Amino acid sequence: MEEILDSHLRHNKLEFLVKWEGYMSENNLWEPKDNCKNVCNTIAAFYQKYPQPPRWVAQMQFNNLNFQPYQNFTQPMFL
Fold first, then answer.
1. Residue 62 banded pLDDT, cuts 50, 70, 90
2. Residues 26-35: contacts with CB within 8 Å, 24+ apart?
């Protein structure tokens, strides 16, 4: 693996667009996150360079997010 070029969610699973070392760009493949376990440094470098693409959030991290209540302004209020 030479570089990770992009990431997306497909069928609710994270995939990375992988540029393979020694191959042309037309050979780039979308690989599931589980196939990229041994390239943590490459994934970290990708997110450092491009912080906005989708990423996997651990359940413990998700549970620690502070959600704020909101008021629904789309439904009319009847007195």
1. low
2. none
Question: Three-class SS of residue 6?
Answer: strand
Q: Which residues contact 45 (CB under 8 A, 6 or more apart)?
A: 4
- Give the predicted TM-score (pTM) of the model: 0.64
Domain spans, the chain: 3-58
Domain over 3-58 is classified CATH 3.40.190.10: no
57: its two tokens = 């959030």
Long-range contacts formed by 9-16: CB under 8 A, 24+ apart: 9/54, 14/54, 14/55, 14/56, 16/43, 16/46
Amino acid, single-letter form, for residue 28: N
| All residues at 6 or more sequence positions from 15 whose CB lies less than 8 Å from its CB, including other chains | 7, 8, 9, 30, 31, 32, 33
